[in-house]
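Need a sequence for this fold. Nothing fancy.
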């Protein structure tokens, strides 16, 4: 994993009018927002019900949007995949067995998102944010 996979710093700086202090503040805020959304996703996966995938869609959508604005490609990609997986699972009337398979697929996507989040946290630590 390269830093460019985590964030395109040059593009992010452009988004912030080349104001590094502002970018650092936004990246810190993004960390807090992502961590809050991860808790929501984890809660939704603990006891899956008819609203769980909708909650996962919403939380991953928040991560996708915020990370897109700050050029955090790995977060954007994994959040997009999770959002799409949860959306597909949310639209399907399934048997208990099928629901379990969908839940496992969404969990796998969530694990990939958590890896991206870990990489993001490591990057922030490496640049003193």
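Here you go.
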């Amino acid at each position: 994993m390269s830093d460019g996979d985590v964030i395109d710093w040059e593009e992010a700086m452009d988004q912030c009018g080349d104001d590094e202090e502002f970018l650092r503040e936004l990246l810190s805020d993004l960390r807090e927002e992502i961590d809050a959304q991860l808790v929501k996703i984890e809660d939704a996966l603990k006891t899956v019900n008819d609203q769980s995938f909708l909650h996962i869609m919403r939380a991953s959508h928040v991560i996708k949007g915020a990370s897109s604005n700050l050029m955090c490609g790995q977060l954007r990609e994994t959040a997009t995949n999770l959002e799409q997986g949860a959306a597909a699972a949310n639209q399907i009337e399934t048997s208990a067995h099928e629901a379990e398979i969908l839940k496992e697929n969404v969990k796998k996507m969530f694990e990939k998102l958590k890896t991206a989040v870990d990489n993001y946290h490591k990057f922030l630590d490496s640049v003193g944010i």
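For context: The two ends are 19 Å apart (CA to CA).
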